[in-house]
Amino acid sequence: MPINIPRELPAGEILKREKIFVMDEDRARTQDIRPLNILILNLMPEKEKTELQLLRLLGNTPIQVNITFLRMATHQSKNASKYHLDNFYTTFEMVKEQRFDGMIITGAPIELLEFEEVNYWDELSKIMDWTKDNVTSVMHICWGAQAALYHHYGIDKHALSKKCFGIFKHTLADPKEDLVRGFDEEFLAPHSRHTGVSKEAIINHPELFLLSKNEEDAPFIIMSKDKKHIMITGHLEYDATTLADEYHRDVAKKLDIDVPKNYFPNDDPNKKPLNTWRSHAHLLFSNWLNYYVYQQTPYVWK
Protein backbone atom coordinates (compact mmCIF):
# COMPACT_ATOMS: atom_id res chain seq x y z
CA MET A 1 0.00 0.00 0.00
CA PRO A 2 1.18 3.57 -0.59
CA ILE A 3 2.44 6.43 1.46
CA ASN A 4 0.40 9.59 1.04
CA ILE A 5 2.57 12.68 0.69
CA PRO A 6 2.10 16.25 -0.59
CA ARG A 7 1.80 16.33 -4.38
CA GLU A 8 4.90 18.49 -5.02
CA LEU A 9 7.25 17.05 -2.37
CA PRO A 10 10.61 16.60 -4.18
CA ALA A 11 11.14 13.14 -2.68
CA GLY A 12 8.00 11.94 -4.47
CA GLU A 13 9.55 11.73 -7.92
CA ILE A 14 12.61 9.88 -6.62
CA LEU A 15 10.41 7.38 -4.76
CA LYS A 16 8.34 6.74 -7.89
CA ARG A 17 11.51 6.04 -9.89
CA GLU A 18 12.52 3.56 -7.19
CA LYS A 19 9.11 1.85 -7.54
CA ILE A 20 7.95 2.89 -4.05
CA PHE A 21 4.14 3.12 -4.17
CA VAL A 22 3.35 6.81 -3.67
CA MET A 23 -0.13 8.36 -3.64
CA ASP A 24 -0.75 12.09 -3.54
CA GLU A 25 -3.29 13.72 -1.23
CA ASP A 26 -5.99 14.18 -3.88
CA ARG A 27 -6.17 10.49 -4.80
CA ALA A 28 -5.94 9.38 -1.16
CA ARG A 29 -9.07 11.38 -0.28
CA THR A 30 -11.13 9.33 -2.75
CA GLN A 31 -10.35 6.00 -1.07
CA ASP A 32 -12.62 4.49 1.57
CA ILE A 33 -9.91 3.32 3.95
CA ARG A 34 -8.56 4.22 7.37
CA PRO A 35 -4.86 4.98 6.74
CA LEU A 36 -2.34 5.36 9.53
CA ASN A 37 -1.43 8.94 10.34
CA ILE A 38 2.30 9.28 10.98
CA LEU A 39 3.94 12.48 12.20
CA ILE A 40 7.66 12.95 11.43
CA LEU A 41 9.58 15.52 13.45
CA ASN A 42 12.58 16.05 11.19
CA LEU A 43 15.44 17.61 13.16
CA MET A 44 18.16 16.74 10.66
CA PRO A 45 19.78 19.66 8.80
CA GLU A 46 19.51 18.12 5.31
CA LYS A 47 15.79 17.61 5.52
CA GLU A 48 15.16 16.35 2.00
CA LYS A 49 17.69 13.52 2.39
CA THR A 50 16.10 12.42 5.66
CA GLU A 51 12.61 12.63 4.17
CA LEU A 52 13.65 10.32 1.36
CA GLN A 53 15.34 7.82 3.69
CA LEU A 54 12.31 7.53 5.97
CA LEU A 55 9.70 7.53 3.21
CA ARG A 56 11.45 4.63 1.45
CA LEU A 57 10.99 2.53 4.56
CA LEU A 58 7.48 3.67 5.45
CA GLY A 59 6.32 3.09 1.88
CA ASN A 60 7.34 -0.56 1.70
CA THR A 61 4.59 -2.12 3.82
CA PRO A 62 1.01 -3.32 3.14
CA ILE A 63 -0.36 -0.46 5.27
CA GLN A 64 -1.51 2.86 3.82
CA VAL A 65 0.20 5.75 5.57
CA ASN A 66 -0.52 9.49 5.67
CA ILE A 67 2.63 11.51 6.37
CA THR A 68 2.82 14.88 8.14
CA PHE A 69 6.20 16.59 8.46
CA LEU A 70 6.82 18.67 11.58
CA ARG A 71 9.50 21.31 12.16
CA MET A 72 10.52 23.30 15.21
CA ALA A 73 8.96 26.76 15.39
CA THR A 74 11.70 27.94 17.77
CA HIS A 75 14.60 27.05 15.46
CA GLN A 76 15.56 28.44 12.06
CA SER A 77 16.95 25.77 9.75
CA LYS A 78 20.10 26.82 7.87
CA ASN A 79 20.10 24.00 5.34
CA ALA A 80 16.46 23.80 4.22
CA SER A 81 14.84 26.49 2.10
CA LYS A 82 12.02 28.59 3.50
CA TYR A 83 9.91 27.52 0.51
CA HIS A 84 10.37 23.83 1.36
CA LEU A 85 9.56 24.30 5.03
CA ASP A 86 6.56 26.56 4.36
CA ASN A 87 5.06 24.20 1.78
CA PHE A 88 5.76 20.76 3.23
CA TYR A 89 6.10 21.23 7.00
CA THR A 90 3.85 22.29 9.81
CA THR A 91 4.44 23.36 13.42
CA PHE A 92 3.33 21.90 16.72
CA GLU A 93 0.76 24.67 17.25
CA MET A 94 -0.97 23.52 14.07
CA VAL A 95 -1.24 19.83 15.05
CA LYS A 96 -1.43 19.80 18.84
CA GLU A 97 -5.21 19.28 18.80
CA GLN A 98 -4.83 16.22 16.55
CA ARG A 99 -3.93 12.64 17.39
CA PHE A 100 -1.50 10.46 15.45
CA ASP A 101 -1.11 6.71 15.21
CA GLY A 102 2.68 6.90 15.07
CA MET A 103 5.49 9.43 15.26
CA ILE A 104 9.17 9.50 14.35
CA ILE A 105 11.60 11.91 16.03
CA THR A 106 14.88 12.00 14.13
CA GLY A 107 18.41 12.64 15.26
CA ALA A 108 20.17 16.01 15.13
CA PRO A 109 23.88 16.96 15.00
CA ILE A 110 23.82 18.65 18.41
CA GLU A 111 24.73 15.76 20.67
CA LEU A 112 27.69 17.46 22.33
CA LEU A 113 25.38 20.16 23.70
CA GLU A 114 23.64 19.60 27.01
CA PHE A 115 19.96 19.01 26.36
CA GLU A 116 18.92 22.25 28.06
CA GLU A 117 21.41 24.18 25.89
CA VAL A 118 19.55 23.22 22.70
CA ASN A 119 17.59 26.27 21.61
CA TYR A 120 14.42 24.28 20.95
CA TRP A 121 14.60 21.99 24.00
CA ASP A 122 11.56 23.55 25.70
CA GLU A 123 9.47 23.12 22.55
CA LEU A 124 10.69 19.54 22.07
CA SER A 125 9.88 18.75 25.71
CA LYS A 126 6.32 19.96 25.19
CA ILE A 127 6.02 17.78 22.09
CA MET A 128 7.36 14.72 23.92
CA ASP A 129 4.90 15.33 26.77
CA TRP A 130 2.08 15.69 24.22
CA THR A 131 2.90 12.28 22.69
CA LYS A 132 1.93 10.53 25.93
CA ASP A 133 -1.78 11.03 25.22
CA ASN A 134 -1.86 11.83 21.51
CA VAL A 135 0.40 9.27 19.77
CA THR A 136 0.11 5.49 19.91
CA SER A 137 3.82 4.72 19.38
CA VAL A 138 6.91 6.89 18.95
CA MET A 139 10.16 5.86 17.27
CA HIS A 140 13.16 7.96 18.36
CA ILE A 141 16.37 7.87 16.30
CA CYS A 142 19.96 8.63 17.47
CA TRP A 143 19.95 12.01 19.27
CA GLY A 144 16.17 11.73 19.33
CA ALA A 145 16.60 8.46 21.24
CA GLN A 146 18.95 10.10 23.72
CA ALA A 147 16.52 13.00 24.16
CA ALA A 148 13.67 10.57 24.88
CA LEU A 149 15.73 8.59 27.40
CA TYR A 150 16.62 11.81 29.19
CA HIS A 151 13.17 13.40 29.09
CA HIS A 152 10.99 10.38 29.82
CA TYR A 153 13.31 8.21 31.94
CA GLY A 154 15.98 10.50 33.41
CA ILE A 155 18.90 8.74 31.67
CA ASP A 156 21.54 11.21 30.49
CA LYS A 157 24.00 10.77 27.64
CA HIS A 158 27.78 10.83 28.03
CA ALA A 159 30.59 11.84 25.69
CA LEU A 160 32.55 9.03 24.06
CA SER A 161 36.35 9.03 24.05
CA LYS A 162 36.16 8.49 20.29
CA LYS A 163 33.36 8.92 17.77
CA CYS A 164 31.29 5.80 17.16
CA PHE A 165 31.45 5.82 13.38
CA GLY A 166 30.92 2.93 11.00
CA ILE A 167 29.03 -0.33 10.53
CA PHE A 168 28.74 -2.51 13.62
CA LYS A 169 27.47 -6.01 14.36
CA HIS A 170 24.47 -6.28 16.67
CA THR A 171 22.81 -9.05 18.64
CA LEU A 172 19.32 -9.43 20.09
CA ALA A 173 18.23 -10.03 23.66
CA ASP A 174 14.88 -11.45 22.57
CA PRO A 175 14.47 -12.42 18.89
CA LYS A 176 10.80 -13.25 19.58
CA GLU A 177 9.94 -9.61 20.25
CA ASP A 178 7.60 -8.35 17.52
CA LEU A 179 9.79 -5.36 16.65
CA VAL A 180 12.61 -7.64 15.47
CA ARG A 181 10.60 -10.43 13.89
CA GLY A 182 12.58 -11.83 10.98
CA PHE A 183 15.91 -10.36 12.14
CA ASP A 184 19.04 -12.48 11.91
CA GLU A 185 20.64 -13.36 15.22
CA GLU A 186 23.51 -11.11 14.19
CA PHE A 187 22.92 -8.10 11.95
CA LEU A 188 24.63 -4.90 10.84
CA ALA A 189 23.68 -1.24 11.34
CA PRO A 190 25.35 2.16 10.90
CA HIS A 191 26.31 4.46 13.77
CA SER A 192 27.56 8.03 13.68
CA ARG A 193 27.66 9.71 17.08
CA HIS A 194 29.96 11.31 19.65
CA THR A 195 27.84 10.35 22.67
CA GLY A 196 26.34 7.24 24.18
CA VAL A 197 24.01 6.03 26.92
CA SER A 198 24.69 3.69 29.82
CA LYS A 199 23.76 0.07 29.25
CA GLU A 200 23.53 -0.46 33.01
CA ALA A 201 21.16 2.49 33.46
CA ILE A 202 18.84 1.03 30.83
CA ILE A 203 18.96 -2.53 32.17
CA ASN A 204 18.28 -1.31 35.71
CA HIS A 205 15.40 0.98 34.76
CA PRO A 206 12.06 -0.67 35.62
CA GLU A 207 10.28 0.81 32.60
CA LEU A 208 12.85 -0.08 29.92
CA PHE A 209 14.02 -3.15 28.05
CA LEU A 210 17.33 -3.42 26.16
CA LEU A 211 16.43 -5.32 23.02
CA SER A 212 19.72 -5.06 21.10
CA LYS A 213 23.33 -4.05 21.64
CA ASN A 214 26.31 -3.75 19.32
CA GLU A 215 29.64 -5.56 19.26
CA GLU A 216 31.11 -2.94 21.60
CA ASP A 217 28.42 -3.76 24.19
CA ALA A 218 26.66 -0.42 23.61
CA PRO A 219 22.85 -0.16 23.56
CA PHE A 220 21.22 -0.09 20.12
CA ILE A 221 17.47 -0.78 20.34
CA ILE A 222 15.75 0.18 23.59
CA MET A 223 12.03 -0.18 24.26
CA SER A 224 9.73 1.00 26.98
CA LYS A 225 7.97 -1.96 28.54
CA ASP A 226 4.59 -0.47 27.60
CA LYS A 227 5.95 -0.45 23.98
CA LYS A 228 4.99 3.19 23.49
CA HIS A 229 8.57 4.40 23.02
CA ILE A 230 11.19 2.78 20.80
CA MET A 231 14.68 4.29 20.94
CA ILE A 232 17.33 3.44 18.35
CA THR A 233 20.82 4.81 18.93
CA GLY A 234 22.02 4.23 15.36
CA HIS A 235 20.78 4.88 11.84
CA LEU A 236 19.23 1.90 10.08
CA GLU A 237 17.49 4.42 7.81
CA TYR A 238 20.81 5.65 6.33
CA ASP A 239 21.60 5.24 2.63
CA ALA A 240 24.68 3.30 1.54
CA THR A 241 26.63 6.53 0.95
CA THR A 242 25.55 8.57 3.99
CA LEU A 243 28.60 7.74 6.13
CA ALA A 244 30.86 8.34 3.10
CA ASP A 245 29.32 11.78 2.65
CA GLU A 246 29.95 12.56 6.33
CA TYR A 247 33.53 11.30 6.14
CA HIS A 248 34.48 13.21 2.98
CA ARG A 249 32.78 16.35 4.32
CA ASP A 250 34.84 16.26 7.51
CA VAL A 251 38.06 15.50 5.60
CA ALA A 252 37.40 18.54 3.40
CA LYS A 253 37.00 20.62 6.57
CA LYS A 254 40.33 19.19 7.84
CA LEU A 255 38.63 17.75 10.91
CA ASP A 256 40.12 14.86 12.86
CA ILE A 257 38.02 11.98 11.54
CA ASP A 258 38.78 8.26 11.22
CA VAL A 259 37.69 6.12 8.29
CA PRO A 260 34.31 4.57 9.23
CA LYS A 261 34.73 1.06 10.66
CA ASN A 262 33.79 -1.92 8.49
CA TYR A 263 32.37 0.35 5.80
CA PHE A 264 34.52 1.03 2.74
CA PRO A 265 35.76 -2.10 0.91
CA ASN A 266 39.29 -2.75 2.23
CA ASP A 267 38.94 0.46 4.26
CA ASP A 268 39.61 2.41 1.07
CA PRO A 269 37.58 5.67 1.02
CA ASN A 270 37.90 5.78 -2.76
CA LYS A 271 35.81 2.62 -3.11
CA LYS A 272 32.03 2.56 -3.17
CA PRO A 273 30.49 1.26 0.08
CA LEU A 274 27.79 -1.41 0.06
CA ASN A 275 24.50 -1.25 1.91
CA THR A 276 24.68 -4.27 4.24
CA TRP A 277 21.77 -3.29 6.53
CA ARG A 278 18.91 -2.50 4.12
CA SER A 279 16.82 -5.63 4.77
CA HIS A 280 16.85 -5.12 8.54
CA ALA A 281 15.92 -1.46 8.12
CA HIS A 282 12.83 -2.50 6.16
CA LEU A 283 11.98 -5.18 8.72
CA LEU A 284 12.28 -2.73 11.62
CA PHE A 285 9.97 -0.15 10.08
CA SER A 286 7.39 -2.65 8.79
CA ASN A 287 7.31 -4.44 12.16
CA TRP A 288 6.90 -1.11 13.96
CA LEU A 289 4.05 0.00 11.70
CA ASN A 290 2.28 -3.34 11.98
CA TYR A 291 2.70 -4.48 15.57
CA TYR A 292 3.19 -1.22 17.48
CA VAL A 293 1.06 1.19 15.46
CA TYR A 294 -1.56 -0.58 13.30
CA GLN A 295 -2.34 -3.36 15.80
CA GLN A 296 -2.46 -0.99 18.77
CA THR A 297 -4.03 2.25 17.60
CA PRO A 298 -7.81 2.80 17.95
CA TYR A 299 -9.82 2.92 14.73
CA VAL A 300 -11.43 6.10 16.02
CA TRP A 301 -9.57 8.29 18.52
CA LYS A 302 -11.80 9.48 21.38
UniProtKB/TrEMBL annotation:
Domain of life: Bacteria
GO molecular function: homoserine O-acetyltransferase activity; homoserine O-succinyltransferase activity
Site-annotated residues for Important for substrate specificity: S192
UniProt keyword Chaperone, yes or no: no
Pathway membership, UniProt: Amino-acid biosynthesis; L-methionine biosynthesis via de novo pathway; O-acetyl-L-homoserine from L-homoserine: step 1/1
Keyword Acyltransferase: yes
Binding site for substrate: K163, S192, R249
Pfam families assigned: HTS (PF04204)
EC annotation from Swiss-Prot or TrEMBL: 2.3.1.31
Site (Important for acyl-CoA specificity): E111
One cellular-component annotation, GO: cytoplasm
Subcellular location(s) of the protein: Cytoplasm
Enzyme class of the recorded protein, top EC level: transferase
Catalytic activity: L-homoserine + acetyl-CoA = O-acetyl-L-homoserine + CoA
Main location: cytoplasm
UniProt record, GO biological process: L-methionine biosynthetic process from homoserine via O-succinyl-L-homoserine and cystathionine
CDD domains noted in UniProt: GATase1_HTS
Active site residues of this protein: C142, H235, E237
Protein keywords: Acyltransferase, Amino-acid biosynthesis, Cytoplasm, Methionine biosynthesis, Transferase
HAMAP family noted in UniProt: MetA_acyltransf
General function of this protein: Transfers an acetyl group from acetyl-CoA to L-homoserine, forming acetyl-L-homoserine.
NCBIfam families: metA
Homology family: Belongs to the MetA family.
Record protein name field: Homoserine O-acetyltransferase
